[in-house]
Design a protein that fits this description.
It contains 17 helices and twelve strands. It is α/β, with parallel strands linked by helices and about 400 residues long. The chain folds into two domains: about 120 residues, Nucleotidyltransferase, domain 5, CATH 3.30.420.40; about 210 residues, Nucleotidyltransferase, domain 5 (2-Layer Sandwich), CATH 3.30.420.40. α2 packs antiparallel against α3 and α12 packs across α13. The structure holds adenosine-5'-diphosphate. Adenosine-5'-diphosphate (ADP) binds next to α12 and α14.
């Protein structure tokens, strides 16, 4: 099955073409465009270049297109990307303004350009469908809950991959199989012994997810991708009382407050230096106090959520780091694990230092919990889920 995975940003379009079969799959082509003004033009151009390069002899050969959609109003899961998916994206356009409109447009465009292909959307919220009401409800009036305000959780494709891969690496094939089939079969009974994972996706945007037997129990991210850990330039968690206070005291309009919280906060906001942790780290090493604080805030927040999920899970079998910072930031990993030996997390400093963006177990040989680095591969997750959906 030829599956095109489409990654649509507010001004970019990237794609990977996968050839998938029951045993796995491979990337057969990839490409992308920056500064996109019209998705229709670049999508048609991408299809023409695949043909020109001999990857496909006709666009009709593409069986399916997969979209990593973020958040839908009253819709989640791995679903056929039809008009109801577009309506769900548009219903929450104001909650994910950088993501939802491009995906709604992209789905429309692909329906025109590839009328024979099946279009599938995998929502980033899908992995959290089975969280308990107590964990995903906010203490707000019913009218607010009725318009869809609750914790959703994001980075679902990435954390679901961690659920599968960590179980495989820890010899829990029963859990790995549950995680792989989750969107088709839902949670299933696994072996007697629970398998408890805390997954840290630390990248341009970051989140921590607790996973029990292959199924998410909660996320540091809530209603919007604006919440949880400090993000690169987005705020993360903030007391709701701070917004009206800042608006009144600073005399700024609501839209400006929103802009500052989405564009000038997070690592950039605290450090005043950069939204890239490499620059912030360099400044901190040179003695910049706010840069140092930005990194400390990130580490503090990761540990806060790690602790929360370890309590909810009654322990931990694997702590996993993934995405740009998680895969490369040995210093951040060491700081997160510092002093947690008594909780079963024993990092091997030499293995940790040696590990850069490769799959590795960086715990000591005798550590009760594994500490794993697992490179993110969200496009592959998309291709797999689209394949599973259309083959089931
Ligand atoms: P996104 O979340 O945007 O998909 P990535 O997962 O690629 O992004 O992560 C981007 C982040 O990874 C950036 O903040 C960058 O600073 C960080 N990163 C990349 N390389 C390193 C490194 N060597 N050390 C620490 N952080 C890194």
């Amino acid at each position: 099955m030829l599956i095109l995975v489409a990654n649509l940003g507010s001004t970019s379009f990237k794609y990977r073409l996968f050839r998938m079969e029951a045993g796995g799959g491979e990337v057969v082509a990839k490409g992308g465009y920056e500064r996109v003004e019209d998705y229709g033009t670049v999508i048609d151009d991408a299809l023409a270049s695949l043909q020109r390069d001999g990857v496909i002899s006709s666009p009709d050969e593409i069986d399916a297109v997969g979209f990593k959609t973020v958040l839908g109003k009253n819709l989640s899961g791995c679903v056929i990307a039809d008009q109801s998916a577009i309506d769900a994206l548009e219903g929450f356009a104001a909650v994910a303004p950088a993501h939802n409109p491009p995906y709604a447009n992209g789905i429309r465009q692909f329906a025109r350009s590839l009328p024979k292909a099946r279009l599938v959307a995998l929502f980033e919220t899908a992995f959290y469908q089975w969280t308990s009401a107590a964990s995903h409800s906010y203490a707000i009036p019913k009218a607010w809950r009725d318009i869809g305000i609750r914790r959703y959780g994001f980075h679902g494709a990435s954390h679901k991959f961690i659920a599968e891969r960590s179980a495989e690496l820890c010899g829990r094939e029963d859990v790995a199989e549950t995680a792989r089939r989750l969107y088709q079969d839902g949670p299933r009974q696994t072996g007697a012994k629970p398998f408890r994972v805390v997954s840290c996706h630390l990248g341009g945007s970051s989140s921590v997810t607790g996973i029990l037997n292959g199924v998410a129990i909660g996320s540091s991210m809530g209603f919007s991708p604006q919440s949880g850990l400090p993000q690169n330039n987005r705020v993360g968690d903030l007391d709701s009382g701070a917004i009206p206070y800042a608006i009144r005291t600073l005399g700024i309009p609501f839209d400006e407050a929103e802009r500052q919280l989405t564009k000038e906060s997070g690592l950039l906001g605290i450090s005043g230096i950069s939204n890239d942790i490499r620059d912030v780290r360099a400044a901190a090493a040179a003695g910049h106090a706010d840069a140092k604080l930005a990194i400390e805030c990130l580490i503090h927040s990761i540990r806060h959520w790690l602790g929360a999920f370890m309590i909810e899970l009654s322990g931990i079998d694997a702590l996993v780091f993934t995405a740009g910072i998680g895969e490369n930031g040995a210093d951040i990993r060491a700081a997160v694990c510092d002093g947690l030996e008594g909780f079963g997390i024993q990092l091997d400093p030499v293995r940790n230092e040696a590990c850069r963006a490769v799959e590795a177990d960086i715990a000591t040989g005798t550590s009760p919990a594994r500490v794993l680095v697992i490179p993110a591969n969200e496009e592959l997750v998309l291709a797999r889920e689209v394949f599973r959906k259309l083959s089931s």
